[in-house]
Design brief:
The chain is mostly helical and 136 residues long. It has a domain of 83 residues: Orthogonal Bundle (Ribonuclease iii, N-terminal Endonuclease Domain, Chain A).
């Protein structure tokens, strides 16, 4: 397993627990999408590649289908609170790209919501869960 990006060191915004609870699951998913892509980009930095190769690797991992697959593999490791966050994120998914099954889109959105929520509340736990995701 590779050494993970220290997300607790990256947390640029310090929200209070009250402020976090006022944010919505769709906000968590919005943030989680960016955090997950940053994680995937960081993961593939070594060995060095051409920009096009980086892009292809990252796009393959941040697609909704890949995120839904990763979520399936993560579920056995999740706490009851984290499973609740997934449900809230799933229910926040609205609309969908035409090419996607709505179920896949909801699963991807719920994973992004969990990532965003943990980024704000428990970066150490987020790092632990990201370590379970097999990107290679």
């Amino acid at each position: 397993m590779r050494r993970l990006l220290g997300l607790q060191q990256l947390n640029l915004v310090a929200l209070t627990p009250t402020e976090i609870q006022k944010t919505t699951p769709s906000s968590w998913a919005y943030l989680g999408d960016a955090i997950y892509e940053l994680y995937v980009r960081s993961y593939y930095l070594i060995p060095a590649k051409r920009s096009r190769s980086y892009h292809q690797l990252v796009v393959a991992q941040v697609r909704a289908e890949s995120q839904a697959h990763h979520l399936h593999n993560l579920k056995p490791h999740l706490t009851s609170l984290e499973l609740d966050i997934l449900k809230r994120g799933r229910n926040a998914a609205f609309g969908k790209p035409k090419r996607l099954d709505p179920e896949v889109y909801q699963q991807a959105t719920s994973l992004e919501a969990l990532i965003g929520y943990l980024y704000l509340t428990d970066p150490q736990r987020l790092n632990q869960l990201l370590g379970y995701i097999e990107l290679d």
